[in-house]
Amino acid sequence: MKVIFDTKSLYYLPQYLPVHNELAKLGIKSTFVFYEGIHDDIIKKIASDENLASIWVADEEAATVFYEKERADWVFFANSFPYLDRVHQVSKSAQLGHGIGPKASYYSKSRHSMSVRFVEGDYRTKRLEGMFPSDVFVDVGFCKMDPILNGELCKEALLEQYGLEKNTPTILYAPTFYPSSIERFPKDWPADFGGYNVIIKPHYFSISKKLYRKQLALLNHWAQFDNVYLATTEDYSLLPFLEVADVLISDASSALFEFALLNKPVIWCDFLKLRWNYRGIFSYKFKRRMDQDYGDYANIAVHATKYKELIGLVKDQLQRPDDLEAIRLELSEKLAGKLDGFSSKRIVDYLMENV
């Protein structure tokens, strides 16, 4: 069997790699297609470190030409793809989303039909089937979490790698790029958390796109504090940070829900920087950007309406980490389905049964 992973963005890798590794156990080789951009050298190093067979393309047209030539059994995509009709002449396609957050785009990705879309949980599977009754959706769980669930990461070693104190509580701040809380944080906020390790894991766009250069300037300033580790482009995976952190601060990011899946306390920032065309009479644009279940998902965390509330909330959540345990466990099934460490295996089993 021949499998290809279309990797237009680096942050698709954490979702792809568990499936790639499961294929490798069976002696099945896979190829990663990377797109030329500003971080080519970094991606080449990551591909080398992970021992990934890879090729590089300029754009989706070039990628499609490669798929037509290779005639793989399966081509994986993390998002929609404009030349699916050509891909389907030679291969089957599989969609594997890279996040489980509350954005409406999770569902809009299925407007362009893949041969199969692997979905996290019965709730989302049934909802997608109702929206796209002619398509194939298979509930496999959330394979991105398999490495943590299977004990493949070591907390002590990771803290040492990041230069952080091993016996100090660790805060993970993982904001998304838009709408984001980054611009609403004080310039010297890490000083307010001097008794904690602070890991800042921004979205890939915040450190790679010119549109968010002001965010990057703030992030680089915060990185100067002794208790802070700022994730770099090389830190493409959120998983190590989910493993080492004791509490998460985030906004409308899928990181928030991934952390809650581990039954750890989450603080949701409601103070967001919205562009002018998302405010006032245009607030409907923000609501449209979010999933209809946004309100239900919000119950998975305690909420900070302004920055000043964070100091007390962090302390409270670390002292009482089980406060929202029942809600976290209930929503975990709705968000991600099975969390048993075998999601990747279920995907590979499907691939082999439906070549």
CATH homology group of the largest domain: Glycogen Phosphorylase B
Query: For the report, how would you describe the main beta sheet?
Result: 7 strands, parallel
Which oligomerization state do the chains in this entry correspond to? single chain
Read across the widest sheet, the strand sequence of neighbours is 3-2-1-4-5-6-7
Q: What portion of the residues fall into strands of 2 or more residues?
A: 15-25%
Low-confidence sequence ranges: 275-286
Q: Would you list the SSEs in sequence order as H and E?
A: EHEHEHEHEHEHEHHEEHHEHEHEHHEHHH
According to CATH, what is the class of the largest domain? Alpha Beta
Structure description:
With 355 residues, the chain is an alpha/beta fold. The chain has 2 domains: 3-142 and 338-353, 3-Layer(aba) Sandwich (Rossmann fold); 154-336, Glycogen Phosphorylase B (Rossmann fold, 3-Layer(aba) Sandwich). It is built from 17 helices and 13 strands. The strands form 2 sheets. Strands 3-2-1-4-5-6-7 form a 7-stranded parallel β-sheet, with helices on both faces. A 6-stranded parallel β-sheet has the order 10-9-8-11-12-13, with helices on both faces. Helix 1 (13-25) crosses helix 17. The chain is globular, with a radius of gyration of 20 Å. The termini are close together. Keywords: Transferase.
